[in-house]
Design brief:
The protein is of the alpha/beta class. The chain has helices spanning about 45-50, 95-105, 115-125, 140-150, 170-185, 195-200; strands at about 5-15, 15-30, 35-40, 60-65, 70, 80, 155-160, 190, 205-210, 210-215. Helix 2 (about 95-105) packs parallel to helix 4 (about 140-150) and helix 4 (about 140-150) packs parallel to helix 5 (about 170-185). The radius of gyration is 17 Å and the shape is globular. It binds adenosine-5'-triphosphate. This is ATP-binding cassette domain-containing protein.
Length: about 220
């Protein structure tokens, strides 16, 4: 089992009172599966992805990646994430951002990365931008950079929050192909999305509604 959540609860305090967004979420994603997460806007998809990658902690319940519970965000090779806010480093070029998970991995630090980076950039239609910084490209180009960074190390678990939200109908299919290939190579992939193209590439879909998961 690559990714598992059991009875996950999370509330947020607001001036008008606490909002109990996640009310007992259970889910599991196996290696090689591409699973989409749908649900109405505001249902808590981003809140759940943030918990599953260890950036936030549940009030109750457990999250485990490859059998390990998450007290802190795990290494990229274990769990890579494409967050809605992307989280690119502004001090690194696009090519350096994409290579980061390999550079941070003590076992792979010395590997040549240029070909893998160039291949992903070409496939995603951002070739020729490798020497630019995130602030010098569009948000859609930044999003494809964050996608390339998420897949480059072949993570056990790949989480993506609306990975095609800023892509047009030319660039979205390539992004979906890259995500599908990650699953076919053995990653457990969970994608929060409203996009039909991503749902069509999925093995199954989970629906988050009223704080719990149902199966579509
Ligand atoms: N860090 C936070 N602090 C306070 N409230 C939060 C926080 N994160 C999420 N929420 C609240 O949790 C609810 C769910 O938000 P979330 O962004 O997870 O929804 P979503 O399903 O991803 O929506 P969308 O499809 O529009 O992206 C909202 O009511 C939001 O205000």
């Amino acid at each position: 089992m690559s990714l598992r959540a059991e009875d996950v609860h999370r509330s947020f305090d607001h001036p008008s009172g606490a909002v109990h967004v996640l009310r007992g979420v259970d889910l599991a994603v196996e290696p090689g599966e591409l699973v989409t997460l749908s649900g109405p806007s505001g249902s808590g998809k981003s809140a759940l992805i943030t918990l599953l990658c260890g950036f936030d902690q549940p009030d109750r319940g457990t999250v485990a990646v490859c059998g390990r519970s998450l007290a802190t965000p795990p290494a990229w090779r274990l769990c890579a994430v494409l967050p809605q806010a992307l989280g690119l480093s502004g001090e690194l070029t696009l090519a350096e951002n994409i290579a980061l998970p390999l550079r941070l991995d003590p076992e792979r630090r010395g590997e040549p990365v240029a070909d893998a980076v160039a291949g992903l950039m070409a496939e995603l239609g951002i070739d020729g931008l490798g020497d630019r910084y995130p602030a010098e490209v569009s948000f859609g180009q930044q999003q494809r950079t964050a996608l390339a960074r998420a897949v480059i190390a072949g993570p056990k678990v790949l989480l993506a929050d609306e990975p095609t939200a800023h892509l047009d109908h030319h660039s979205a299919p390539a992004a979906v192909r890259v995500l599908r290939r990650a699953a076919d190579a053995g990653s457990a992939v969970l994608i929060a999305t409203h996009h039909d193209l991503v749902h069509e590439a999925a093995d199954r879909t989970l629906v988050l509604e009223a704080g719990r998961i149902s199966v579509e």
